[in-house]
Design a protein that fits this description.
Blueprint lengths: L11 E6 L14 E10 L10 E6 L8 E4 L7 E5 L3
Antiparallel strand pairs: 1-2, 1-5, 2-3, 3-4
Length: about 80
Amino acid sequence: MAKTREELVGKRFLSVSGGNNKLKLSKITEWDWRAGVIRACTHTDSKHHDLQVLVEYDDVEWQRREWVHVYRGQCSRSSCWSEH
């Protein structure tokens, strides 16, 4: 089994938004998927309650990075990151 990286910076991630609608698994190909790279984070512990990550989406200019609160209800997108 490959060893996983514990740090978050530099990891690729996927996020999906359902807006105010509940996402239906049967329509997974229609979900609003976005991918990118985590460029900075506020904590090294990925389970920290106040964790924020600076994300750079693949389809957006790098100057338009944005901070995302990972565990707060403020975020309209759900995110996960790769362990590779």
